[in-house]
Design brief:
The complex is a heterotetramer, with two copies of chain A (80 residues), one copy of chain B (229 residues) and one copy of chain C (593 residues). Chain A has two helices and three strands; from the N terminus they run E-H-E-H-E. Chain A is α+β, with helices and mostly antiparallel strands. Chain A is elongated. Chain B has a single domain, classed as 3-Layer(aba) Sandwich (Rossmann fold), CATH 3.40.50.880. Helices cover 22% and strands 24% of the residues of chain B. Chain B is built from five helices and eleven strands, in the order E-H-E-E-H-E-H-E-E-E-E-H-E-E-E-H. In chain B, helix 2 links the parallel strand 3 and strand 4. In chain B, helix 1 packs across helix 5. Chain B is globular and about 45 Å long. By secondary structure, chain C is α+β, with helices and mostly antiparallel strands. A seven-stranded mixed beta sheet of chain C has the order 8-10-7-11-9-12-13. A six-stranded mixed beta sheet of chain C has the order 1-2-3-6-4-5. Chain C is globular, with a radius of gyration of 24 Å. Chain C starts with a helix and ends in a 23-residue tail after the last strand. Classes of the chains: A alpha+beta (80), B alpha/beta (229), C alpha+beta (593). Chains in contact: A-B, A-C, A-D, B-C, B-D. At the A-D interface, strand 1, helix 1, strand 2 and helix 2 of A face helix 1, strand 2 and helix 2 of D. The complex binds adenosine-5'-diphosphate.
Chain lengths: 80, 229, 593, 80
C-alpha cells in the first residue's frame, strides 16, 4: 500500500520559507501572488494491506517522527 | 587582477573571500550588490558562500534569478572567469552555468570540517599552481554539498576533464572515507566546458594563512592572479 | 504629536470590544500574586485594562524584573578600569585596547528548547546575537553551554539533535562562527534541559549604542520582521477569551528566521555608521512591552505607541497581543528628528519592515493608542521603583563530609578504567556537535574547538585575539554551591590563561530551580557568594548575565548550574598555545598543587 | 483563488532525506515502511479569478522558481 502524508505549519506559526518564496515570486513578475506557505509532502510504501491498521500506524509515525505537533499539522491519505 | 565579489541578501562568506583576494593581490575587490545588473568590468567574478535568501526553497534558486546573475551569465558567455564557492556553486548550477546539482548531505547534517582534496588537473586558470594528483587540505562548511548529476552528464564531465577536485583520504585515495557529504564520484568541484567557470563546495578562502586553517587554498588565488594579470 | 499629549493623559483608557472583566483568576494566570495585584491597583489608581495588566505581568515577571535574584546579583563585582559598561544594558562592554571594545553576554532559552528543541535553541541564538549587535558590535563568535538528561532517557536523543541543529541552523546562516561551549548529561535535566547561548562582538569604543531614550518628540521606529502571535505571554485563557476565534489565535512557539536576522544585522550596522540613532533596543522577551518601557524608563521620559502602526503578520491582532508578542527579529529605535527617511531607505534596501510607531514625550507615562483611542496609560517610574523585590528565605547547603581517599578502591584494571572514563558521555569527544557548527567562517579562528582550553578568535585582521570559554561543573555546585561557584569562575580563568590570554571579564547564566524553596534559594545565594569571591580575588568583573529560575519538573530541580562565560585578550595571537600535541619527543610538565 | 503545488524528485534521483526518514521509521519500530520519498508542498494565495490563466501563471512560476526541472517534477492544483 502507498501512503501520502502532508505536513504543514499550523496557522499563525511564522513560515520563513513561504515568506521568502512569496517575496521572490512578486519580484520575479508575479504580483498576483499573496500569502505563500511551504509544507512537506512524504510518500511512503507500506507493507500492510489492512487500511485501518495502516492508518493507525501512519498516525503514530506522524506523531513520533514526521510532524512536530507543537507547530505542525499533518494529514494522511492512503492510495491503492 | 581586478575582482568582483557578488553579495546577495544572506551571503556571509563574501568578506572571507574578499580578504583572501586582498591578501594575494594587495587590493580590495569590488563588492557587487545582487540588484546591480550593471557593474564595472573585472577580470574575475566571485560568487561567494552563504545562505542567499536564507537557502529557502532550494539553495541558490532565488539568487540564480537575481539581476546580477543575468549579467554574470552574459559575461561568463563572453569568457569572463567565474569562481563559485559553496552557496555560489549552488547558485551557478541553478543558473545553468555548471551542470549537475547540489543536494542535501547524505547524512542530512551540516558539516564543518577540514577535508582533503585531490587536484584533478593543473590545466586551468584556477588550478595552474597545483599539480595534477596533488592532495590539499581545506575546510568545508555546508548542509547541501552532495553533488549529483545523471550518468550521461558525469561521463561527459569525466571525458572532457571537467572535474576540478575530488574528496579523498589524506593519502590521496578517492573512496568513501574522505567524502564528507555523499557526493557522487567524490566530486568536490567542476568546470564548465571552457574551464572558465569553476564551482566547488570547499572553502579555499578559509585556508590562506598557516595560523588560520592552513594555507593550501592560497595557490588557487595566486594561480588566478598569475593567469589574469 | 505631543500636542495631544496633555489631553491624552486625562482620558481614561477605552475598553476594547469583548474585553473581559479582570477576575482574581485572570490575575493569577498572569503570574501576579494578590499582593502584587494590589500594587498594580495602587499605582494605577483604578482597575487596569487587559493590555495594562499584561504589561505589568510581563514587566514584573521573574524574567524581566529579577525580583528573586536582584538582591543577590548586587554582590557580584562589576567594576574594573577596563569595564566600559557593566550589567544593566543589553550586554557588557570591556575595553580591549586600540580603540576597540568587546561586547558580550550569555542568555538562556531553556524552556522553549524543551518544548520545541530546534526552534527554541535557534531563537535563543537569535536573541543573544541581537543583544550584542544592538549595542553596535559586529558579532565575531558564538558559544553555547548545553545540559541534557540521561543519554538513555527516551527524550534525550530527540532533544540533543534538535537543539544542536537549531543552534547550528541559526548561527551558520548568520555567518557567525560557533567556536566553543560545553555539553553535559545528567538525569536531573531529564525534564528540563539547559540551553545557554553566548555571543561576543567587537565595536569601536566611540561607537557604542545604548538603550536610554532621549529627546522629547523624537520618533520611535520599529524595524525588522512583522509581529505575529508568537509566544504570547502565558496567559492563555485571557487571550482566548479576548478573541472570537480561539483556535486561530492560540499562543504559538516562536519560529526564528535567521535570514531576516542577518539582514537586520547588516541594516542596523549600516544605520549605526550614520549619525541618526539616539537609542536602540532589541525586542526580546516581552517584546514591544519591555523594549519601549526600558527605553523610556532609562531616559526618564514618556512614550506614545500607536499600536495600529505596528507591522502585523496576521489579521485581527489586538493591542494585548501586539504588546506581548515575542515575534523574533525585531528592533526598536529612537531616531534623531527628521532622519526617518534616511533610515527608512536603509531598511527598505535590506527588505525589512520599517514603521514610525510613536514618539517620546515628557510625561513619564506609557500611552498606547489604537486607531485613535487610548487603550493603555501607565505611569513609568512607579512600575520600576515599586516593582516587587523579594528577599526569599534561604538555607545554605552545608559543606559535605570529606571523603577519605583511602576509602575509594584502587582500580584493578587501569586500562579499562581509562576507557570507561573516555567513553562516558561527559568526557567523550563532542566533535559530532561542533562539526555541525560553522566554526571557521570569518577566517579568524586560531584555536578551534578541542584544540585548546579556550577558543581563540582574531580581532579584525590584526594581531590581537580574544580568548573565550564557558564553564561550570554542576555536580560541584550541588555538593557545595559556594565552592562550586568559585570553582566555575576559577576554571574559566584558567582556561583563558591556558591559551596565553589575559582574562578580562565574565558573563554568567544562573540556572536554578524554584527560588521559593529555601534550599534552592540557598544554592543560588551560595553560588553567588562563591562567584563573587573568586571574581574579586582574580579581578575578573561580571559585566553581564542572565537568570533562569523555576527549572524543575514535578518538583524535582535541576542541578544548580551557574554557567560562567569568560573573555580574555592576547596582544599577539602568534604567541597563543593550544593543547594539541604537535610534535613527538616534547616533554610534559605538571604544574600547580 | 488558492493553489497547491507539489514538487517531487524525479524517479532515479537519489533522495537522501527520504532515505533517512525511512531508516528512522524502521529503527523506531515501523518495519513495514519501505521506500520513502520526500517532496515539497506549496500553498499559494492568488489574486486571479480566471482558472486557465491562473494555471498558466503557476506553470510559469514552477518552471522559473518553484521546481528545478533537472531533478524535480511538479504538479499544480487549484482550490476554491
Ligand atoms: N546573573 C547575572 N549576573 C550579572 N548580571 C546579570 C545577571 N543576570 C542579569 N544580569 C544583568 O541584568 C540585566 C538585565 O538582563 P536581561 O533581562 O537578561 O537583559 P535583556 O532582557 O535586555 O536581554 C542585563 O544587563 C544583565 O547583564
Amino acid at each position: 500500500m502507498k501512503a501520502r502524508v502532508h505536513v504543514t505549519l499550523k496557522n499563525g506559526v511564522l513560515d520563513p520559507q513561504g515568506k521568502a518564496i512569496g517575496h521572490s515570486l512578486n519580484r520575479l513578475g508575479f504580483p498576483e501572488v499573496g500569502d505563500v506557505r511551504q509544507g512537506k509532502f512524504i510518500e511512503l510504501e507500506l507493507d500492510e494491506t489492512d487500511k485501518a491498521k495502516a492508518k493507525a500506524r501512519l498516525d503514530e509515525m506522524c506523531r513520533k517522527l514526521l510532524a512536530n505537533t507543537v507547530i505542525e499539522n499533518y494529514s494522511i491519505e492512503l492510495v491503492g | 587582477m581586478k575582482a568582483a565579489v557578488l553579495v546577495f541578501p544572506g551571503s556571509n562568506r563574501e568578506g572571507d573571500v574578499a580578504q583572501a583576494i586582498e591578501l594575494v593581490t594587495g587590493r580590495k575587490p569590488q563588492m557587487v550588490w545582487h540588484g546591480d545588473g550593471d557593474f564595472e568590468k573585472t577580470d574575475l567574478i566571485v560568487v561567494p558562500g552563504g545562505f542567499s535568501y536564507g537557502d529557502y526553497l532550494r539553495c541558490g534558486a532565488m539568487a540564480a534569478l537575481s539581476p546580477v546573475m543575468a549579467e554574470v551569465k552574459k559575461r561568463a558567455a563572453q569568457g569572463v572567469p567565474v569562481l563559485a564557492i559553496c552557496n555560489g556553486f549552488q547558485i551557478v548550477t541553478e543558473a545553468g552555468l555548471l551542470p549537475g546539482t547540489l543536494m542535501r548531505n547524505a547524512h542530512l547534517k551540516f558539516v564543518c570540517s577540514d577535508v582533503h582534496l585531490k587536484v584533478e588537473t593543473s590545466q586551468s586558470l584556477f588550478t595552474n599552481r597545483y599539480q595534477a594528483g596533488q592532495v590539499i587540505r581545506v575546510p568545508v562548511a555546508h548542509a547541501e554539498g552532495n553533488y549529483f548529476a545523471d550518468q550521461d552528464t558525469l561521463k561527459r564531465l569525466e571525458d572532457r576533464g571537467q572535474i576540478a577536485f575530488r574528496y579523498c583520504a589524506p593519502d590521496g585515495t578517492v573512496d568513501g572515507t574522505g567524502n564528507p557529504n555523499g557526493s557522487i564520484r567524490n566530486i568536490a568541484g567542476v568546470f564548465n566546458e571552457t574551464k572558465t567557470v569553476m564551482g566547488l563546495m570547499p572553502h579555499p578562502e578559509n585556508a590562506v594563512e598557516p595560523m588560520f586553517g592552513g594555507s593550501d587554498g592560497k595557490a588557487l588565488f595566486e594561480g588566478l592572479v598569475e593567469a589574469l594579470t | 504629536m505631543s500636542g495631544n499629549g496633555v489631553s491624552v493623559e486625562k482620558n481614561p483608557p477605552v475598553k476594547l470590544p469583548n474585553e473581559p472583566v479582570i477576575t482574581p483568576q485572570i490575575v493569577a494566570e498572569h503570574g501576579l500574586s494578590p499582593e502584587e495585584y494590589q500594587r498594580v491597583l495602587a499605582i494605577m489608581g483604578r482597575t487596569p485594562t487587559m493590555v495594562e495588566l499584561g504589561i505589568f505581568s510581563a514587566m514584573w515577571s521573574e524574567h524581566c524584573s529579577y525580583k528573586s535574584s536582584k538582591v543577590w546579583l548586587k554582590k557580584l563585582p562589576t567594576k574594573a578600569p577596563w569595564v566600559i559598561q557593566g550589567p544593566g544594558e543589553n550586554a557588557g562592554v570591556i575595553d580591549i585596547g586600540d580603540g576597540q571594545a568587546a561586547i558580550f553576554k550569555m542568555e538562556s532559552h531553556n524552556h522553549p528548547s524543551y518544548i520545541e528543541p530546534y526552534q527554541g535553541a535557534a531563537t535563543g541564538v537569535g536573541g543573544i546575537l541581537r543583544d550584542v549587535f544592538t549595542m553596535g558590535a559586529r558579532p565575531i563568535a558564538n558559544l553555547n553551554a548545553l545540559r541534557f538528561g540521561d543519554p538513555a532517557h527516551p527524550k534525550t536523543r530527540h532533544l540533543v539533535s534538535g537543539v544542536v541543529a537549531g543552534i547550528g541552523g541559526y548561527g551558520n546562516c548568520m555567518g557567525i562562527p560557533t567556536v566553543g561551549g560545553e555539553t553535559n548529561f545528567h538525569a536531573a535535566y531529564n525534564g528540563n534541559i539547559l540551553v545557554n547561548a553566548m555571543t561576543v562582538g567587537i565595536a569601536p569604543t566611540d561607537r557604542i549604542f545604548y538603550a536610554a531614550a532621549a529627546g522629547v518628540g523624537n520618533p520611535l521606529v520599529y524595524v525588522g520582521s512583522k509581529t505575529g502571535r508568537d509566544g504570547i505571554h502565558g496567559a492563555t485563557m485571557a487571550s482566548t477569551e479576548f478573541s472570537e476565534d480561539s483556535e486561530e489565535k492560540r499562543p504559538t512557539v516562536q519560529v526564528g528566521d535567521p535570514f531576516v536576522e542577518k539582514l537586520l544585522l547588516e541594516a542596523c550596522l549600516e544605520l549605526m555608521a550614520t549619525d541618526v540613532i539616539v537609542a536602540i533596543q532589541d525586542m526580546g522577551a516581552a517584546g514591544l512591552t519591555s523594549s519601549s518601557f526600558e527605553m523610556a524608563a532609562k531616559g526618564g521620559l514618556g512614550v506614545i505607541v500607536e499600536l495600529d502602526k505596528v507591522p502585523m503578520r496576521e489579521t485581527g491582532m489586538n493591542p494585548y497581543e501586539l504588546m506581548l508578542s515575542e515575534s523574533q527579529e525585531r528592533m526598536l529605535i529612537v531616531l534623531k528628528p527628521g532622519t526617518e527617511e534616511q533610515a527608512r531607505k536603509i531598511f527598505e534596501k535590506w527588505e525589512l519592515d520599517f514603521a514610525v510607531i510613536g514618539h517620546l514625550t515628557d510625561t513619564e507615562r506609557m500611552v498606547l493608542s489604537w486607531h485613535g483611542d487610548i487603550v493603555g496609560n501607565i505611569p513609568i517610574p512607579p512600575l520600576v521603583t515599586e516593582a516587587p523585590v523579594y528577599e526569599r528565605p534561604w538555607t545554605l547547603t552545608p559543606l559535605p563530609a570529606v571523603l577519605d581517599a583511602a576509602s575509594v578502591p584502587v582500580p584493578k584494571d587501569w586500562r579499562a578504567s581509562l576507557l570507561a572514563l573516555m567513553s562516558c558521555p561527559d568526557l567523550a569527544s563532542k566533535s559530532w556537535i561542533w562539526h555541525q557548527y560553522d566554526h571557521l567562517i570569518m577566517g579568524n579562528t586560531a584555536i578551534r574547538p578541542q584544540d585548546g582550553d579556550a577558543a581563540l578568535v582574531r580581532v579584525n585582521g590584526g594581531h590581537k585575539g580574544l580568548a573565550m570559554t564557558s564553564d561550570c561543573t554542576p555536580r560541584y555546585v550541588q555538593a557545595h554551591p559556594e565552592t562550586g561557584g568559585r570553582q566555575a569562575v576559577a576554571e574559566a580563568w584558567r582556561n583563558i590563561t591556558a591559551v596565553g590570554a589575559r582574562p578580562l571579564a565574565v558573563t554568567d547564566n544562573m540556572n536554578f530551580g524554584n527560588p521559593q524553596k529555601p534550599e534552592i534559594m540557598g544554592q543560588f545565594a551560595g553560588a553567588i557568594m562563591g562567584m563573587a569571591e573568586a571574581c574579586k580575588v582574580l579581578d575578573f568583573p561580571v559585566v553581564s548575565g542572565n537568570v533562569s529560575l523555576y527549572n524543575e519538573t514535578e518538583g524535582r530541580p535541576i542541578l544548580p548550574t551557574p554557567t560562567i562565560g569568560a573573555v580574555g585578550v592576547i596582544e599577539d595571537i602568534a604567541k597563543a598555545v593550544g593543547s594539541r600535541l604537535t610534535q613527538a619527543g616534547l616533554g610534559i610538565v605538571l604544574i600547580g598543587e
